[in-house]
Amino acid sequence: MNMQHTLQAKGLDLRQREIVLGWSLVLPSVLIILALILYPILYNIYLSFF
């Protein structure tokens, strides 16, 4: 079963499938950028206690 069949089986129309596709393409990049921004901030907070 491929992704297209899965999305059609859920009864999603074209607009909803495009929204799901858009988020699935953007989400990995957003998570990487957030990790690169948040990790140093959180690590500096951690180091400030020592």
Can you describe this structure?
There is one protein chain. This protein is 82% helix and 0% strand. The protein has 50 residues and is an all-alpha fold.
List its traits.
50 residues, mainly alpha, 82% helix
Structural class: mainly alpha
Query: Runs with pLDDT <50, length 5+?
Result: none
General form: rod-shaped
The overall pLDDT, averaged over residues, is 88
Topology order in helix (H) and strand (E) letters: HH
Residues in helix, %: over 70%
Question: Please, what is the oligomeric state?
Answer: single chain
Strand percentage: under 5%
Q: How far is it from the N-terminal to the C-terminal residue, by CA? A: 53 Å
Q: Which sheet architecture does the biggest sheet show? A: none
